[in-house]
Design goal:
This protein is an alpha+beta fold and 260 residues long. The chain folds into 2 domains: 1-44, no CATH class; 92-241, Aspartate Aminotransferase, domain 1, CATH 3.90.1150.210. It is built from 5 helices and 10 strands. It has a 5-stranded antiparallel beta sheet with strand order 6-7-8-9-10. Strands 3-4-5 form a 3-stranded antiparallel beta sheet, with no helix packed on it. Strands 1-2 form a two-stranded antiparallel sheet. Helix 4 packs parallel to helix 5. The mean pLDDT is 86. This is F-actin-capping protein subunit beta. Its main location: cytoplasm. It comes from Blattamonas nauphoetae. Heterodimer of an alpha and a beta subunit.
Length: 260
Amino acid sequence: MAENKRMAACLDITRRMNPADVETTQGDLIFLADDLTGQILANVDLPLQLETDTAVGRSFIISDYNRDGDSYRSPHSNKYFPPYAEGALPNAELRQLETEANELMAKYVELYYEKGGESSAYFWESSDGVAAAVLIKKEYNSKETGQKGTWNSIHIFKITPFGTGKFNFTLTTTISLQLGIDILNLAGNLVRKAEKKGIKCQTGSDKVRMMGQMVEESENKMRAHIETVYFGRLKGIVSDLRSVTELKNLPSNRMVIAPN
């Protein structure tokens, strides 16, 4: 019980700190509670990073979901980098699902993220079914305008049997967004859950397609929410702080400073 309370306190601290400094926050928490290192690494999501699969010459996303020790498994060659002979590997069925999911998400990123987007999908066995992580990363950096931004999507699936030929799909999506110009930086996280019950899936490909549909639906809804609610709220706050209306167009009952 005491350990649960300490872990809850760690997560509460993370939520209150600047999302742009999450890597520093995670390191500080591990320093203060090194016995909770595994739980902290598993529950505090860091900005996604890229590694190169030298076996095939392609990039892949590294995270806690494809880590074993200090090495990370590539979804392309199914090998660990740096090499790790004892690294865990998915069974043949999960590997097939993983391969199809990576091909599907590569097409999805090409359509929605254009050049520069990267995706990786990883599957593993859970206590009552199958679990998977679909990761997407896109960075933008313009030297001409000074504008920069990073989009990280972490989609965690849990797929459990629901009768003969039917499955429940539970999705938890975390979107981490960082935006900035030379004089201003914004960062934040948004988490949403979705569930579909009793979905008929005759093949593994059916499961992968359902996962793709849920990722698309979740990201579209969350992007619209970020744009309309959060950016709209920010615009409203700025407008309340300083109006752009010219003095001649202000209502007559508004008090203004008379020019000298």
